[in-house]
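Key result, reporting period 2: structure in, sequence out.
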């Protein structure tokens, strides 16, 4: 797996910790049988609020920035993250920026694996799988 971090913001994001954590998340997904082995390329793209709002408006019809979006292109995935929002959420939750970022990357990775939460049944399954993944990768210690 190749993980590429693209930071389009002025924020410092802890590239190496996030890259190592992301690799750990995908190893956990493989162990759970949710991803296939092979050459998967993942871009983690950090956006400012303005760009996040544009992308969210185009793809989700919501004219506001969002913390995370994911896009699956087959053997290539893209996770878009907004540090400004993530920082606020981390502060509100009393966790580090890196931990909150890893929670969102894990959540987005589940979307890349085909899990969704549009219906109550999907949400229940996704929550169960996410909880198991968080435990496998020890998300609390990021």
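The corresponding designed sequence is given below.
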């Amino acid at each position: 797996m190749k993980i590429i971090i693209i930071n389009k913001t002025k924020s410092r994001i802890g590239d190496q910790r996030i890259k190592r954590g992301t690799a750990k998340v995908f190893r956990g997904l493989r162990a759970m049988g949710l991803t296939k082995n092979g050459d998967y390329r993942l871009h983690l793209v950090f956006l400012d609020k303005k760009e996040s709002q544009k992308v969210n408006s185009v793809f989700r019809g919501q004219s506001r920035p969002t913390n995370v979006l994911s896009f699956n292109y087959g053997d290539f995935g893209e996770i878009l993250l907004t540090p400004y929002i993530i920082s606020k959420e981390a502060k509100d939750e009393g966790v580090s920026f890196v931990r909150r970022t890893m929670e969102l990357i894990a959540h987005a990775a589940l979307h890349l694996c085909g899990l969704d939460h549009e219906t109550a049944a999907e949400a229940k399954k996704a929550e169960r799988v996410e909880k198991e993944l968080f435990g496998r990768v020890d998300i609390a210690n990021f």
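The two ends are 21 Å apart (CA to CA). The first strand starts at residue 2 and ends at 7. This case is discussed further under Risks and Mitigation.
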